């Protein structure tokens, strides 16, 4: 699956988990899936995205609630996202409960593990309050991102020429008149509409699309993760799923 979708092992495993949980939810007619992410997971995610490269949307971190692109509607909820791992461990100790531990979490074989076991202890030497500082930054960015997202959706609706399941067509001239930063945000909205989320897409993917719009002749196209195609047509930029 990872090779087919051109994903890392971590990302591929994540998608398989979500697919399994979604199927179970639909089977039992549940409309919410509760996950156990903590604020420590939030911190690790922010650092991981910084290392790999991300924009402001990525730096707002793991959302407390996320709606899956499914019918009927299913919500991913994270009730512990503002609770620390140490608080949970203390609670378990007070109530004589045992935590389930994934032994692979203790080995620096994946980037998240390396951040937890190696990078964070080093950063705490520079700032013992690094966790509080970064989580405060996340809260600020989330509020600002909400404002920017409202404006992005307005522009997105203005430049749409064609919109149907699995396909978006953008008016190329109108799209090109907006600042580059807003163009990237509009592209993310288009991909999110088709794919349901932005997992597997990087800054470089959006840059490649923008290069296509400005430098390539009509009829040119590029491949994206998850079997998406971006095609430059006469006066239109098409994004669609490969059949």
TrEMBL record:
Molecular function terms from GO: ATP binding; tRNA(Ile)-lysidine synthase activity
Alphabetized Pfam families for the sequence: ATP_bind_3
Statement: the UniProt record of this protein carries the keyword GTP-binding: no
Designated name of the protein: tRNA(Ile)-lysidine synthetase
Broad class of enzyme this protein falls into: ligase
Lineage of source species: unclassified sequences, metagenomes, ecological metagenomes
EC number: 6.3.4.19
Keywords (A to Z) from UniProt: ATP-binding, Ligase, Nucleotide-binding, tRNA processing
Transmembrane feature ranges: none
Any GO BP: tRNA processing
tRNA(Ile)-lysidine/2-thiocytidine synthase N-terminal domain: residues covered: 4-117
The keyword ATP-binding is assigned to this record: yes
Catalytic reactions on record: cytidine(34) in tRNA(Ile2) + L-lysine + ATP = lysidine(34) in tRNA(Ile2) + AMP + diphosphate + H(+)
Any single GO CC term annotated in Swiss-Prot or TrEMBL for this entry: cytoplasm
């Amino acid at each position: 699956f990872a090779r087919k979708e051109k994903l890392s092992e971590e990302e591929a495993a994540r998608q398989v988990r979500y697919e399994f949980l979604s199927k179970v939810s639909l089977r039992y007619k549940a409309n919410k899936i509760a996950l156990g992410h903590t604020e420590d997971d939030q911190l690790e995610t922010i650092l991981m995205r910084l290392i790999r490269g991300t924009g402001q949307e990525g730096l707002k971190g793991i959302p407390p609630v996320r709606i899956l692109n499914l019918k009927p509607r299913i919500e991913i909820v994270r009730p512990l996202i503002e609770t620390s791992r140490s608080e949970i461990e203390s609670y378990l100790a007070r109530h004589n409960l045992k935590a389930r531990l994934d032994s692979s979490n203790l080995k620096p074989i994946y980037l998240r593990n390396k951040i937890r076991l190696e990078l964070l202890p080093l950063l705490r030497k520079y700032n013992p309050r690094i966790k509080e500082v970064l989580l405060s930054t996340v809260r600020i960015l989330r509020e600002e991102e909400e404002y920017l997202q409202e404006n992005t959706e307005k522009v997105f609706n203005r430049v749409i020429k064609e919109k149907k399941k699995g396909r978006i067509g953008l008016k190329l001239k109108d799209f090109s008149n907006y600042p580059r930063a807003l163009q990237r945000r509009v592209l993310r909205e288009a991909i999110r509409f088709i794919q349901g989320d932005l997992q597997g897409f990087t800054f470089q993917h959006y840059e490649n699309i923008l290069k296509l719009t400005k430098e390539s002749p009509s009829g040119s196209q590029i491949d994206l993760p998850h079997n998406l195609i971006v095609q430059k047509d006469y006066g239109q930029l098409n994004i669609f799923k490969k059949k």
